[in-house]
Amino acid sequence: GENVEQHPSTLSVQEGDSAVIKCTYSDSASNYFPWYKQELGKRPQLIIDIRSNVGEKKDQRIAVTLNKTAKHFSLHITETQPEDSAVYFCAAARVGGYNKLIFGAGTRLAVHP
Amino acid sequence: DGGITQSPKYLFRKEGQNVTLSCEQNLNHDAMYWYRQDPGQGLRLIYYSQIVNDFQKGDIAEGYSVSREKKESFPLTVTSAQKNPTAFYLCASSMDSLNTEAFFGQGTRLTVV
């Protein structure tokens, strides 16, 4: 079945550094790739997404890149702040028809002041 | 907050008993999902439904059942056949099959005692 692998499982950075989280997916028909942030004790919330017709998308300090040939996509956070500390999940879906959102295992990001 | 409500927040059940988790949304979303969250394993899809009176098994449907009799409601029953039911359960909804941003409920933590 469909599978999404996410690395690393934990990531520790100093405030101001960049953080990169990488995901690979197995279903070549996937065309929608969102990233969710889950703060401690809270529900996951969408922070950025990308569709297969673009290779990169940026929103202030966060950006996502997509390589469809290699079937991988990455989240980049620049100038990290302590409030970026959370668990980040990538996901992949085939939008249209019976699309279902398949998540990676998550990355626990810790930003140290 | 978010328009999707799960209840209860904490649930205890005795081994061998069935239990039903509630999920209600007032966002007029067509699609609804149930995920199970275990430490280090991300969000695993249990069941999903794109429209009323229709639902599909996810990756870990064994021991679970759902119904979708109304658009706004997607209850999940954890049956006695589920071998390891203790987990955090998240319900989500999205507008339709083309608008896949998922909005999550606050979750239900189920503990089998």
List keywords for this structure.
heterodimer, A: mainly beta, 6-stranded mixed beta sheet, 5-stranded antiparallel beta sheet, globular, B: mainly beta
Shape of chain B: globular
Class of secondary structure makeup of chain B: mainly beta
How much helix is in the residues of chain B? under 10%
CA distance, first residue to last residue of chain B: 31 Å
Kindly provide the radius of gyration of chain A, computed on alpha-carbon positions and rounded to a whole number of angstroms.
14 Å
Oligomer status: heterodimer
Biggest interface goes to: A-B, 27 and 26 residues
Number of helices of chain B: 0
Structural class of chain A: mainly beta
Largest sheet of chain A: 6 strands, mixed
Could you give the order of the helices and strands of chain B?
Answer: EEEEEEEEEEE
Number of helices of chain A: 0
Describe what you observe in this structure.
The complex is a heterodimer of chains A (113) and B (113). Chain A is mostly beta strands and 113 residues long. Chain A contains no helices and eleven strands. The radius of gyration of chain A is 14 Å and the shape is globular. The model of chain A has no long low-confidence stretch (mean pLDDT 93). Chain B has 113 residues and is mostly beta strands. Chain B has no helices and eleven strands. Chain B has strands at 4-7, 10-13, 19-25, 31-37, 43-51, 54-57, 64-66, 76-78, 87-94, 103-104, 108-112. In chain B, the strands form two sheets. In chain B, strands 2, 4, 5, 6, 9, 10 and 11 form a seven-stranded mixed β-sheet that branches. Chain B has a four-stranded antiparallel β-sheet with strand order 1-3-8-7, with no helix packed on it. Chain B starts with a strand and ends with a strand.
In short:
Chain A is mostly beta strands and 113 residues long. Chain A has strands at residues 4-7, 10-14, 19-25, 32-38, 45-51, 56-59, 62-67, 72-77, 86-92, 102-103, 107-112.
